[in-house]
Amino acid sequence: QVHMVESGGGWVQTGGSLRLSCTASGLTLSHYAAGWFRQVPGKEREFVASIAWTGTGENYADFTKGRLTISRDNNKDTVYLQMTYLRPEATAVYYCAVAREFGPPPTGRRDEYMYWGQGTQVTVSS
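^ thats the sequence. predicted structure below, dont judge the formating
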């Protein structure tokens, strides 16, 4: 059984930074393309960023505007989302998901992703 776990969320003031981490059990995360999504209450889950299994090749949603960076350390089987210059509109639950094994960076289509974590809350105060 695959279990995805996000960590690193929390509360931060406007302008602050957070780094989210994603790990997995039940599969070798370093073999899978992966992505991050986010969701606020009452809205659909939206794509944030994705990365190829090799770590080279990423896709980003337009709103990230260079403030968010996806990366991975395959030696640690971990995928990261570095968030900087955070603003209140970034407040959401952030989800990690895995896509194709040995795959390129997936797009923002949710049906490309097979397994999802439970999410980690990020709150940015003004």
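The two ends are 40 Å apart (CA to CA).
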